[in-house]
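Researcher: Please predict.
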Amino acid sequence: MVTPGFPRDTLDSDGLPVWIRDLASDDPNHSLHVVRDMGPVRALEALRVDPTSIRLCVLPDRKPNRYTSLPGAAFGGDAGDAATLLAGRLGPWTFVYDDSGHTVDGTAEALSRGGRQAVTTVYTINGHASLHYAVDGKEIENVVIDELSLEERLPGMPAELAAAFEAAGIADWEDLEPGEVDSLIGMRVACALAGAVLTLDDLRAKHLVMARRNIGD
């Protein structure tokens, strides 16, 4: 696997950043957002969470079952038709992890308003994936991972996003055709852009907040 931006212990064997793997439920349908120059609580508010649900997060030692994410376990109780969102600060960047993959459409634009940069990436349970890059409220790149040709798209991308794709590399999957990228590349790109090259222990040492959002909202 060519991953110049990721030390060996920060990716699992499939190419997923280990901190995301350790947060996720089995067979996840999830999304990740990164935004520059916005704090975690403001980022959660921009994602229209229930404001009364915002609280500090201490991640538990383990998940109670294969269907529950670690943030979901930290929140406690039956989530019902709600997603659990976990947010934290990484230098000038903030990440928001959505364990349901519900917050995707328009999210990068919403987070980037006011002159900021933001990326949203999603990976679905059936392997479909996309990435959205926005600056100052406007979507600049909309990448359908299943249809991505790096040779064609990279030259036209903003320099910082192209550099993140190069740092992400391509996972060494046996079934990839020449020139094809793996469907987890979006997660690595978002992490590379925001410097989210972490392990779960690294994440536990950070100040984390979480909130709930109803799936239908």
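Model: The two ends are 39 Å apart (CA to CA).
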